[in-house]
Amino acid sequence: MGLGLIASIIVGGLAGWIASMIMKANTGLLLNIILGIVGAVVLNFILGIMGIYAASAVIPQLIVGIIGAALLIAVVRAIRK
């Protein structure tokens, strides 16, 4: 069971915002939410393939979302160059 829709949006937005601050990316609120949610989904998938599962609580998903969003920002920057 996941966090739920509202909690996912809030955690995703926070994770995307933190990742954009770490990566010094100038993104808006909507893109922060998208980066955080997509980053968490992608990284949870990758970790699942490796046999690692993050708990469905807020803090573990926030950490996974931050790392996933930062990775997405890095990939987009690499593709643009």
TrEMBL record:
Membrane topology of the entry: Multi-pass membrane protein
Pfam family, one: Transgly_assoc
Bilayer-spanning residue ranges: 6-23, 30-53, 59-79
Compartment annotation: Cell membrane
Main subcellular localisation: membrane
InterPro entries for this protein: Transgly_assoc
Coiled coil stretches, renumbered: none
Keywords linked to the UniProt accession: Cell membrane, Membrane, Transmembrane, Transmembrane helix
A GO cellular component entry from the record: plasma membrane
PANTHER family for this protein: UPF0410 PROTEIN YMGE
Family: Belongs to the UPF0410 family.
Protein name: Membrane protein
Species annotation: Thioclava dalianensis
